[in-house]
Amino acid sequence: MKADGSFVIGEYDLLEEISSDLVQACGGRGVILQDGQPYDISYTEGGDDLGVNVHPRTAVGFRENGDLLIVVADGRQSGYSVGMNLVDLAQVFKSLGAVSALNLDGGGSSTFVTKNADGSLSVKNKTSNSGGALRAVGDCLILTAA
């Protein structure tokens, strides 16, 4: 997020350009939607088929008016959800009216948790980890009321 409250999703060269104006930032594994259109999301060079294969996914995007969109897709669970590739994920954001979107993490790290009125936490998706266990991860995206 920039100092003026606007959100930006882009490649590393954009980070260098606007770094002095950033208030908050997070990284991900690839821009998937830019200017309302799917971005170069195949990631197949060097044998990396991350963008082609289906996996659980977590991504963020923004509408032109600044609305934040978060998508968490379950996967690796036959009969329930196989996951999404990045092309499908970009199409979901496009259908939600996003103008930009960034793939964050995936696999067992794709977990959506909310805080209940009584302060307890609830997992809102069905994680791909064994038995639905939560995976210990080194990073997370936390949203709070302003």
Identify the notable features of this structure and list them briefly.
12% helix; 146 residues; two-stranded antiparallel ribbon; alpha+beta; five-stranded antiparallel β-sheet
Name the average pLDDT. Answer: 87
Following the backbone from N to C, one meets helices and strands in this order, namely HEEEEHEEE
Shape: globular
Question: Which value, in Å, is the CA radius of gyration?
Answer: 16 Å
Helix content: 10-25%
| DSSP E strands, number | 7
Structural class: alpha+beta
**Biggest sheet overview:** 5 strands, antiparallel
> Low-confidence parts lasting 5 or more residues at pLDDT below 50?
none
Oligomer description: single chain
- State the end-to-end CA separation: 14 Å
